[in-house]
From TrEMBL:
BP-aspect Gene Ontology terms: coenzyme A biosynthetic process
Enzyme class: transferase
Protein name: Dephospho-CoA kinase
Source species of the chain: Nitratireductor arenosus
InterPro entries: Depp_CoAkinase, P-loop_NTPase
Chain's role: Catalyzes the phosphorylation of the 3'-hydroxyl group of dephosphocoenzyme A to form coenzyme A.
EC number per UniProt: 2.7.1.24
Amino acid sequence: MIVLGLTGSIGMGKSTTARFFRDYGVPVHDADAAVHALYEGKAVPLVGERFPDAIVAGRVDRARLAEQVLGKPEALKALEAIVHPLVRAAELEFLAAHREKGTPLVVLDIPLLYETGGEKRVDRVLVVTAPEEVQRERVLARPGMTPERLQNILDTQVPDAEKRRRADFVLDTGLGMDHARRRVAEIIDELTGKPDERRE
């Protein structure tokens, strides 16, 4: 089984790219989705112990939590120490299940892949990218996003140019959906060695 790591800075089109892999039948483990589930379950008491103000109605309020960790390296490190092992455990369950099934290719969608040393856990890395102005436009259109908050997030991420330099595959989502879909098909064919007529 080949494990492909999918990553990219905020607003680069990673979620759309992950959807294309799913459309072609490739299983994807989404670290963000795993965090969402944890923030409504297992992680609530652990996060609540360190960040009590972030718990609202029995779940982690992501907006409140962000206020407490963005731009605060020590607080962010404490949060990561709680969340990353739980996400890793969910990821290991996903990998074990697909190894047992004999799945030829799976994708680990990991936003902070390089930042957390995740490249050691995958066979290849695909980085999604886009021009900076496209990235800013996408991110600043999100509810509650400000230029300052965007900058705080970018400050915690490995720069896009460095990610592209270290990647095995690069996909520029600024070139449009059709291009991105075709590029995903090419990568699947290259990794599995099995062209699929659905991807023609």
